[in-house]
Specification:
By secondary structure, the chain is α+β, with helices and mostly antiparallel strands. 26% of the residues lie in helices and 30% in strands. Strand 1 and strand 2 form a beta hairpin.
């Protein structure tokens, strides 16, 4: 039986952040305070390709803080790719904790199908 699930991602897990960065071949995230044009933010800093400022993941609240000047300082598609990868990695971590195996299948439209099954593979 198949079910459609819609997820609103809150970025709260540092391990999933690290795994997402590794899978996307990004620099390892660093925890600290970052300058975002005229503001500062503290959390896990993710450096996306060709972005002027990092994306800061505030894991306590699940929020992201960034300044890409409406796409002029960073392609929003890079952020979408990070969020997608984060959601996949977080799902994989939670599935493993629950003793489930995960099969990942990239689809032609850029989405990713995850199939979870009882019993770790």
């Amino acid at each position: 039986m198949s079910h459609l699930v819609m997820i609103e991602t809150q970025v709260r897990d540092p391990a999933a952040i690290r795994l997402a960065c590794t899978r996307l071949e990004l620099p390892a995230p660093v925890h600290g305070t970052a300058r975002l044009f005229q503001d500062e933010a503290t959390g896990w800093q993710v450096r996306l390709p060709a972005w002027r400022y990092p994306v800061v993941c505030e894991t306590d609240s699940g929020r992201l803080r960034y300044d890409n000047f409406e796409g002029r300082w960073g392609d929003p598609m890079r952020l979408s790719a990070f969020l997608q990868r984060y959601a996949v990695e977080k799902t994989r971590l939670e599935a493993r904790r629950a003793g489930q195996s995960v099969i990942e299948q990239p689809l032609a439209d850029g989405s990713i199908r995850l199939t979870l099954a009882a019993g770790a593979a």
